[in-house]
Amino acid sequence: MTLPEIRIAYPPWVDSTVEWEGVYPEVEDRMRLAIALSRENVARETGGPFGAAVFERDSGRLVAVGMNLVVPRSNSVLHAEVVACMMAQARLGHFSLGLPELPAHELVSSCDPCAMCLGATLWSGVRRLVCGASGDDAKRLGFDEGPVFPESYRYLEARNVEVVRGVLRHEAAAVLDFYRTSGGPIYNG
Amino acid sequence: MTLPEIRIAYPPWVDSTVEWEGVYPEVEDRMRLAIALSRENVARETGGPFGAAVFERDSGRLVAVGMNLVVPRSNSVLHAEVVACMMAQARLGHFSLGLPELPAHELVSSCDPCAMCLGATLWSGVRRLVCGASGDDAKRLGFDEGPVFPESYRYLEARNVEVVRGVLRHEAAAVLDFYRTSGGPIYNG
After folding, report:
1. CB within 8 A of B67, min separation 6: which ones?
2. pLDDT tier at A188, thresholds 50, 70, 90
């Protein structure tokens, strides 16, 4: 049998949307990038309406971005948060962004993570999770969040992952509406 | 900036462990393959003590396998179940193994999935999840399962994913002991 192989790369538009050396001092600046990625992903028809980015928490230095690539890559794991974490780890060359010798990292997502991505957040080693639109906003569009409960967030917080939700929620949720009106597919299992 | 890219391939030993055209009629036959993958992954030092495989549920035809590749690939997302689902979707060329025109698929894992993998199981479109060692077996080794609760499993079952746990549990857990005595790293976030 020919063994399958997976290759994951950014869509070609990423360089025109992301200012790699830009400054992102506040969480709102960082969320604006995550939302811009989600919007561009819909506009370019390269995936679902979700964007994410990994930053150094204290300096605001951008490490990696992610966008939902489920449909174009035929891969149900490639949610925006997963792509951002994988790419950040690829850049740093280590499976943990929480190594003691590294600056603290944070994951900024345009929407509350689903169950898979909440688990991926914990394993990534980030010390803060920042979310825009709510899980309910996503559910209204028809996207299931999976088995996420209030104690799921408490579980992360008890392991030193700070959680900040609702940052620029309305701007983030507007992209979900944009996706609906553009007729994008709802692709949950 | 040079954009990162992810490439995921099986370790070279996979063809000597997996009989791709073999027959796996019973869940125990399928679990034996998942356990063999977990054991070989430890013996060859290519990752953590976890193996998984995707089968056509009714025929037992093997579709793809997975093994934990977190440390060698510097990627905290690459748990055995995630690798198996990604590879199965790559083979079938679609992000859902639950398409109506496809036979029903199942994911067999040598251990109860962590929170991330339980979410990934739901999004993969498999109709059955079969587990070997328990989450408590993994925890005894020091591997956190993340925010998994009894209602997490009920959530999957309510969405037509049958869950069967404890299949060849002792054989599966023996690989966790093998990993401990071989001094393998505990790599959670």
Report:
1. B10, B11, B14, B37, B38, B40, B41, B46, B47, B50, B51, B52, B80, B83
2. low
Structure-token pair, residue B92:
């079938």
Beta bridge partners of A149: none
Give the DSSP letter string of A102-142: SPPEEEEEEE---HHHHHHHHHHT-SEEEEEE-HHHHHHHT
pLDDT in tens, A24-58: 999 999 999 999 999 999 999 999 999 999 999 99
* Contact map slice: B 57-76 vs A, CB within 8 A: 64, 70-71, 73-76
A positions 7-46 inside 8 Å of B (CB)? 7-10, 14-15, 20-21
Those residues of chain B that have pLDDT short of 70 are 188-189
Helix ranges, B44-159 (H):
80-92, 115-124, 135-141, 150-158
pLDDT digits (tens, 9 = 90+) for A124-155: 999 999 999 999 999 998 899 999 999 999 99
Residues in CB range of A170: below 8 A, 6 or more apart: none
Domain boundaries, chain A: 22-181
Judge: A89–B95 Cβ closer than 8 Å, yes or no: no
| Predicted ipTM of the assembly | 0.97
Q: Mutating which of B16, B68, B69, B77 best tests the A interface, going by the most A Cβ atoms within 10 A?
A: B77
Amino acid at B26: E
Give the CATH number of domain B23-181; options: 3.30.70.100, 3.40.140.10, 3.90.180.10, 3.30.1490.20. Answer: 3.40.140.10
* CATH number at A22-181: 3.40.140.10
What SS3 class is residue B20? coil
Q: Which amino acid is at A86?
A: M
Give the CA dihedral A132, B82, B175, B189, nearest 10 degrees: -30
Which among B21, B73, B189 has the least Cβ separation from residue A125?
B189
Q: Report the alpha-carbon angle B69-B73-B74, nearest 5.
A: 110
